[in-house]
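Input record (one chain):
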Amino acid sequence: MQDAMSPLMEQLMFFHDHTLIILIIITSIVAYMMTTFIFNSIVNRSLLEGQLIEFFWTFLPALTLIFIAFPSLRLLYLMDEVNKPLMTLKIIGHQWYWSYEYTDFVNIEFDSYMKSYDKMSNEFRLLDVDNRTVLPFNTQIRLLISSFDVIHSWAMPSMNIKVDAVPGRLNQA
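The corresponding structure, as predicted from the sequence alone:
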């Protein structure tokens, strides 16, 4: 993952690590138990029937899901929270370019095309554009995203923003 540029993306990266550690522990325990059962020929009859062990192998997965679900739900609600934005940026996807419009200001709109390979110097191929969008730092910004012709995806991974631009539909981030 890219370095986090927002507190929410940082929390998502911590949640990813938290869930990954839980999954590694579960995978290790299951692998150990499978190898033990495969290579061990001794059968313990008290493990074949017992309500106590059935309770534990039902309770422990439920407890594990709770440890994953609560942080996940908290992050989902934080991601959906929209405060009072100080600025609105309207983004429209076209077949080969994006159109941007600062709706809070009068007549500030421009198109952003990908740079051709021969005009680039020390830039990322297929990622750099001729007109970049400039946004203020540490400000609540509303993004209104739509498309003119086909389905697009507008993304800023370091800020945890990825919104689909669908023709005839207005998405907000």
